[in-house]
Write a structure and sequence with these properties.
The chain is of the alpha/beta class. The chain folds into three domains: about 210 residues, Rossmann fold (3-Layer(aba) Sandwich); about 80 residues, N-(1-d-carboxylethyl)-l-norvaline Dehydrogenase, domain 2 (Orthogonal Bundle), CATH 1.10.1040.10; about 140 residues, NAD(P)-binding Rossmann-like Domain (Rossmann fold), CATH 3.40.50.720. About 40% of the residues lie in helices and about 15% in strands. It is built from 18 helices and 14 strands. Helix 15 links the parallel strand 10 and strand 11. Helix 13 crosses helix 14. The radius of gyration is 24 Å and the shape is elongated. It binds nicotinamide-adenine-dinucleotide and uridine-5'-diphosphate-glucuronic acid. The site of nicotinamide-adenine-dinucleotide has 26 residues, from helix 1 and helix 5.
Length: about 475
């Protein structure tokens, strides 16, 4: 039978905010603390600072009931049994994770601990961080019987974060004793016992009362490595398919057919085999680097991770060269860029391959008019409007008078464009698609020159086929 647990979540970013709201959704009492006053002010008014499906409704439902937001850490620590640390762990020097935000939070928590608390590492951290958190608490004078540290890595994806949290593939708890593991079991009981899924307002998804979420208890070190190795393995799958895509393209094979054919083997699976312009985002690039560094510290040369990174970086160059090859020269050309976010269904542009490619094109003398359904405002902060960077309200105005369209993010709406309208707006009917959203033969029928990833390019009758496109 589930019991209500008092929880403090520190950090109200993608992970902290989603965890806080979802813990309230399953019946717990949550205080979410952030040191960014502007963010906390927004949240106190029920405004979600990030673009995430289901978040606005769920925030409205639980605000000031199951979940409150504050900048004041002390009372939040006093009131709770479990403290989830969900602050950023960005890439530091030489690839290692920068744990200074985690250390700062732990030092602050230590000031307020007067009764037993379980500190939960929710941020993605290298192996042995659990031990460092304990050591840090000791150094700040907290008695060992007043706390335990547990690793509970988060596997949600941006864009589907709420659904991933409430319908997880697995919940991993890395605990070194039963008392702390039991508290985490209590917290996740509505999902692991399936009671949440019986509620009429429960968010529908993969889990159900008959198929509840699975919880795996391991040592702290194993849990920390499960997180890093899961992200690294997913990144490896993407780099692998991108490398195969380049081979496929050079022999006129079709990477979409190849990925389908491979994925039908249930040992391989179809997911994360989409070739494109390389992975981005705030996690894969930094986590691959951090995991490589972790191995290095143990004297292990995890070379395959370096290859994953190199293939990923090369994938952007290949796309850039495709644009150049399709346009002959770049200086003075005008391009419509569809997509700015690092993936679909998010406004996050951290480490977005789309932004990197746009910057490179601008450096080469191209002027860009960009459209993205969610990420324009965030992009304006890093690429302010200028002669070479304009923003449009829809794909067709972005394409007005442009020499070609480049597709950089896999938003669904970019795969359902009114091609007649697009063709009419463009100076030349050329699309260079970094996300393989259309079938080449269909695009040729529609009168386009269409260049994609890992598939033969097709040429409109008007454009004609060049003798050779040099890719890299
Ligand atoms: P984020 O940058 O969106 O949010 C971090 C939040 O922590 C910010 O709001 C910041 O103001 C706050 N913060 C920093 N220092 C603080 C302090 N001393 N006190 C209170 N608040 C403080 O980060 P994120 O994307 O949510 O990622 C957090 C962690 O979770 C990272 O380790 C990341 O690798 C991991 N992770 C992220 C995702 C994802 O999809 N974004 C998924 C799984 C795991
Ligand atoms: C990723 C993982 O999927 C989550 O499980 C993990 O919790 C999270 O990182 C994290 O630790 O932060 P996320 O970064 O939100 O989630 O996005 P993904 O859907 O994994 O996509 C990452 C990048 O890979 C995007 O740029 C996407 O376009 C690209 N991608 C993804 C491909 O190029 N091909 C694919 O087949 C899949």
């Amino acid at each position: 039978m589930s019991r209500q647990v008092s929880i403090c979540v520190i950090g109200s970013g993608y992970v902290g905010l989603v965890a806080a709201v979802c813990f309230a959704e399953v019946g717990h009492k949550v205080i979410c603390v952030d040191n960014n006053e502007a963010k906390v002010n927004m949240l106190q008014q029920g405004i979600a600072p990030i673009y995430e499906e289901h978040l606005p409704e769920m925030l409205a439902r639980h605000l000031n009931k199951g979940v409150t937001f504050t900048t004041d850490l002390g009372p939040a620590i006093e009131a709770c049994e479990a403290v989830f640390i969900a602050v950023g762990t960005p890439q530091g020097s030489s690839g290692s994770a920068d744990l200074s935000y985690v250390e700062a939070v732990v030092s602050e928590i230590a000031r307020y601990v007067t009764s037993y608390k379980v500190l939960v590492e929710k941020s993605t951290v290298p192996v042995y961080t659990n031990e460092w958190v304990s050591r840090c608490m000791h150094r700040h004078g907290v008695e060992p019987e007043l706390f335990d540290v547990v690793s509970n890595p988060e596997f949600l994806r941006e864009g589907t974060a709420i659904e991933d949290f409430l319908h997880p593939d697995r919940i991993v708890v890395g605990a070194n004793n039963d008392r702390s593991a039991q508290l985490l079991r209590d917290i996740y009981a509505p999902l692991t016992e399936g009671t949440y899924y019986t509620q009429p307002e429960a968010l529908p998804g993969m889990c159900s009362p008959a198929n509840p979420a699975k919880l795996l208890v391991t040592s702290a070190q194993s849990a920390e490595i499960i997180k890093h190795s899961s992200n690294a393995f997913l990144a490896l799958k993407i780099s692998f398919i991108n490398a195969v895509a380049n081979l496929a393209e050079s022999v006129d094979a079709d990477i979409e057919d190849i990925a389908t054919g491979m994925g039908l083997d249930s040992r391989i699976g179809t997911r994360f085999l989409r070739a494109g312009i390389g992975y981005g985002g705030s996690c894969f690039p930094k986590d691959v680097a951090a995991f490589y560094w972790v191995a290095q510290q143990q004297g292990i040369d995890f070379q395959i991770l370096d290859e994953v990174r190199k293939i990923n970086a090369h994938q952007q160059e290949i796309f850039f060269n495709k644009v150049r090859a399709a346009l002959w020269t770049l200086r003075g050309k005008k391009l419509a860029a569809l997509g700015l976010a690092f993936k679909a269904d998010t406004d996050d542009i951290r480490d977005s391959p789309a932004i990197d490619i746009i910057r490179k094109l601008i450096d080469a003398g191209v002027s860009i008019t960009a459209y993205d359904p969610a990420a324009i405002e965030k992009t304006k902060a890093v690429l302010p409007p200028s002669d070479s960077m304009q923003y449009a309200e829809d794909p067709y105005s972005a394409a007005e008078g442009a020499d070609a369209v480049i597709i950089l993010t896999e938003w669904k709406e970019f795969g359902k464009l009114d091609l007649h309208r697009l063709n009419h707006a463009l100076k030349f009917p050329i699309i260079i698609d970094g996300r393989n959203l259309y079938k080449p033969a269909f695009m040729q029928e529609q009168g386009f020159t269409y260049v994609s990833v890992g598939r033969p390019a097709v040429y409109s009758a008007q454009q004609g086929k060049p003798r050779k496109i040099v890719l890299s």
